[in-house]
Amino acid sequence: MKAVIVESAYTVVVKNVSKPVIGEHEVLIKVKTAGICGSDIHTYKGIHPFRKPPVVIGHEVSGEVVEVGSRTSKVKVGDHVTVEPQYGCGKCEPCFTGRIHYCANRSAPGIGNWYGTMAEYFAAPEECVFVVPKTMDYQLSVLAEPLAVGVHAVRKADLRVGERVAILGAGPIGLLTLSAAKAAGATVLMATDVLDYALEHAVKLGATHTLNIRGRDNWAIDAKKIAGGEFDKVFVAAGAPGIINQALSLLRKGGRAVAVAMFHGEQPLDVIQLQGMEKELIGSFTYMREDTRTAIDLLLAGSIPFESIVSHVLPYSEADKGFRLVDKKEDQSMKVLITF
Fold this sequence. Notes:
- The protein contains 11 helices and 16 strands.
- Strand 9, helix 5 (172-183) and strand 10 (188-193) form a beta-alpha-beta unit.
- The termini are close together.
- The strands form 3 sheets. Strands 3, 5, 6, 7, 8, 15 and 16 form a 7-stranded mixed sheet that branches. A 6-stranded parallel sheet has the order 11-10-9-12-13-14, sandwiched between helices.
- Helix 4 (144-157) packs across helix 5 (172-183) and helix 7 (219-227) runs parallel beside helix 8.
- The chain is α/β, with parallel strands linked by helices.
- The protein folds into 2 domains: 2-143 and 309-339, Quinone Oxidoreductase, Chain A, domain 1 (Alpha-Beta Complex), CATH 3.90.180.10; 150-283, NAD(P)-binding Rossmann-like Domain (Rossmann fold).
- The model has no long low-confidence stretch (mean pLDDT 97).
- Keywords: Metal-binding, Oxidoreductase, Zinc.
- It holds the Pfam family ADH_N.
């Protein structure tokens, strides 16, 4: 089968690889659409902490089931599906309590023998496969995974109806987190970024205020002035240097910041704000099954305008172009999808 491979840093090729052979608890999916995620770009650059080239890339997927294992029970051939791309050992306390993302032996596509999703066929354990209505477009259902990231972050924030929220970084994950925050009842939604077109997308998704922070030294002060005060919750969806302390400075006393982005290198931390003002900083990593279910429900309800997230849809033969678009922010790229 054909597969998109990050062969080395900044080198994406399409090659023939062996079609997956499924186990008794697995299903085989004929891939229709896969998405390029920011973490895929980290692999593309050769800086991802555990997904290293050469690798069949991708973890966002939608498609049709073409084969099921002998001990599957819920998923059937012909089902349209999307996947929560992680599974645990099934034996530890996190797995027993539904926190698979805490499992020390957590598996994900592109690690070990599990091929990524950018291939003609993708195998996955039935437990992490979600059946969606056949009326749901493949290019919409593929957004369930990145939206689940935002849903999980909002849940970790314990966001309440009527709260004031800031989203730092208006890339696809930031925009989907904004969408999840709006669905959870946030009334003030400030989005910041260094690209005007990204902020235009944020407005389409419900941002009440935006701020281009490029070249602004005291942008946190400006953000509070524009929005009319401090924020209850701040989501950090960009890994820029110093952004954690900037997030803390946006918060009211007792507010909570949630780190969603993938960070590289050290971040300074103003402990005085954490202690003296009882502000909180927590991490958010991937999702739980309930987050994926909520994401699918939001997509089915039409809560996420497709055109406000997806900027390009390319055939797999042009995957190298897709990665370049996302990495270089060319042609006003946002979420880029790859079709098979």
